[in-house]
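Question:
When you can, review this sequence-structure pair and walk me through the tokens.
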Amino acid sequence: MTTVSAGNVFESAANNAFKSQRPLISGVDHVGVCVPSSVTDQDIETAFKFYDLIGFKRKMDKVLEDEKCKTSVMMIEVKGTTFELYKQDSKMTNNQANSANTCSPGTLNHFSFRVDDVQAVHQKVVEFINNPEMNPGKKIHILEGTTEPNYLPFWDRGVNYFTVQGAFGEKIEFLQRL
């Protein structure tokens, strides 16, 4: 009887070829919590009062708007742990909105890894995704920032980021603060 260890299952020559000498990420940047569009601004302030009670401080408020939606973002932080509370109000028709990215109450929408060089990480992720031996069936793919990382006017100088859908459907953001 042959015994297969977890190391043998998860290690391969192809996988080792993609490993770098140093980690591509420098830590967790934030966890994104989706606020349903049915929630009022007053409800959001009530939620913040609770987070304030347990030690979180408001670090940023932003409103981004385009032809499809208005997105309100609040970043709150305690001891280096950041939550992004965001609400998207759709400007689309009901049929369009139903097919858009919606969320359930309290949904953890994504987690974001902080990186030092988002362009380099993007390039390595694209190489991984396009390698059929590493990503059979293309289960892992880029959701946002497919050709290059996107920019958002967050924090002092903005951020560049891209988002990947992992093999289990999880949303993983790679973010570089500028």
